[in-house]
Amino acid sequence: MNYYSRSSLAYDFTLFEEDEARLKARRKKAEDAAAESDDSLQQNNVADDVQERREKRERRKDAAAKASRRKSKVGRIALAVIFGIAFAFIVVSIIHGQVQLTELNQQIVNAKAELAEQQSVHTQLQMKVDSSISTAVVEEYARDKLNMNKAANSQKEFVNLSEGDKAEVTMSKDKNIFEAIADAFASLWS
Fold first, then answer.
1. Number of neighbouring beta carbons within 10 Å of residue 42
2. Would you say residue 2 has pLDDT above 70?
3. What is this structure's pTM?
4. Gap between the Cα atoms of 92 and 80, Å rounded
5. Sequence-separated (6 or more) residues with CB below 8 Å from residue 142
6. Best CA proximity match to 139, nearest among 124, 129, 149
7. Residue 17 near residue 2, CB atoms below 8 Å
8. C-alpha–C-alpha distance, residues 51 and 44, integer Å
9. 116, 124 contact by CB (below 8 A)
10. How far apart are CA 173 and CA 118, in angstroms?
11. Can you tell me the distance from the alpha carbon of 11 to that of 3, in angstroms, rounded to the nearest whole number?
């Protein structure tokens, strides 16, 4: 082999040629490596399959957990909305009750004020009636309108009952037998 010859050839391909023995050794080595890689590939494939199955299971679990969390979130939101509505209803009921209570208290205050006013009017009218019916007013009315005067002692006539009271019982002497029986029964019942 002439490695560095000065020939007219541009390239010397002999440099790249190998011995057959080396070539066979290389082929054998490559085959052994290929066989080992097939075994390792099979082991890697089994391991990869196991790993993929685990990952799929984990993804399924994650998906189930996410769905459960979504359901849980929806349930919690629904529960929160229900409690919110119940709380709002209770607050509105309390406010409505307070408004009604305030209105009723105002009506009571107004009724008491009206009662006090009516009692004042009643007292005034009662005083007016009492003043209009006094003995002096009655005497004046009798004197002016009815032309009446006070009774004098000469006009008065006194009655004396000093003799006492008397009671007389009268019985009829002519009674027949039937009247006597009727009186007997009457006296039994009385």
1. 10
2. no
3. 0.35
4. 18
5. 148
6. 149
7. no
8. 10
9. no
10. 71
11. 10
Tell me, what amino acid is at 16?
F
Which whole-number Å values give the CA distances from 83 to 45, 69, 80, 147, in the listed order?
55, 20, 5, 90
Q: Evaluate whether 1 touches 13 at the Cβ level (below 8 Å).
A: no
Q: Are 3 and 12 in contact (CB under 8 A)?
A: yes
Query: Could you tell me the CA-to-CA distances from 27 to 24, 31, 35, 61 in Å, in that order?
Result: 5, 6, 12, 48
Q: Can you give the length of the chain in residues?
A: 190
**Taking the domains of the chain in order of start, what are their residue ranges?**
18-148
Label residue 39 left, alpha or beta by phi (over 0 means left) and psi (-120 to 50 means alpha): alpha
pLDDT in tens, 19-65: 666 667 777 777 777 766 666 656 666 666 777 778 888 888 887 77
* pLDDT at residue number 117: 96
Rounding to the nearest 10 degrees, give the CA dihedral for residues 50, 56, 59, 61.
-80
| Backbone conformation region of residue 103, classed left if phi is above 0, alpha if psi is from -120 to 50, else beta | alpha
Q: What is the mean pLDDT of residues 138-152?
A: 84
Taking a C-beta distance cutoff of 8 angstroms, is the pair 137, 131 a contact?
A: yes
CA distance 174 to 180: 10
